[in-house]
Amino acid sequence: MSDDLLNNYDEEQAKLMQEMCILVNDNDKVVGYETKKNCHLRENIQKNLHRAFSVFLFDKTGEKLLLQQRAQEKITFPEYFTNTCCSHPLNTPSELIEENQLGAKNAARRKLEHELGIPQSQVPIESINFLTRIHYLAPSDGLWGEHELDYIFIIKADVDLNINPNEVMSYKYVTKDELKEIFATQKETGIKITPWFKLIVENFLYKWWDNINDLESQKDLTIHNLL
């Protein structure tokens, strides 16, 4: 498929589709790299498993979680509500580092600044808590989809936001009960929720939230297959 495919999309988002994602096997071993575009074409997603990350940023008290609504300009899952920040480590030296998940953490800091304007000084590496990894697959529409090995990170911090409107349509902090209400009333309200966010909430998040002051005890090196 030619690059003409991206001509009808937002120019900035189309440029980002040329970034190089990290291809991995089911055990998270690097097997190559491919453009974000080719990783997300639905015709390729079965074979192009790639690394991703999902950040859940709570305020310093641990009582409220920052959600974002993806911008209309996004090519996959536009206007969907999701966790604080979700993206991909890239095939660059700083984001390929595997020790202590450092590459994915570097990517998380980069994208928190790019999407939400959070200064990297407010989210130092040591504040990023690795919880686990999930392997999931989800179509977005007839053309696009996701097939990712997703590193899950939790951060507790009070941060300054400077929203990039090309990435984020809206945002809000929610309590645990407010998040439960969003999910319980989703059919009535018509709120769209990204599939990875739904999987993480339904399988893990509330247990982590209950242990927000002892996240080290929740760390799990298992790769959870949620296909």
UniProtKB/TrEMBL annotation:
Family to which this protein belongs: Belongs to the IPP isomerase type 1 family.
UniProt keyword Metal-binding, yes or no: yes
EC number: 5.3.3.2
Any single GO BP term: isopentenyl diphosphate biosynthetic process
Reactions that this protein is recorded to catalyse: isopentenyl diphosphate = dimethylallyl diphosphate
Any one GO molecular function term: metal ion binding
Protein name: isopentenyl-diphosphate Delta-isomerase
Source taxonomy: Eukaryota, Fungi, Fungi incertae sedis, Chytridiomycota, Chytridiomycota incertae sedis
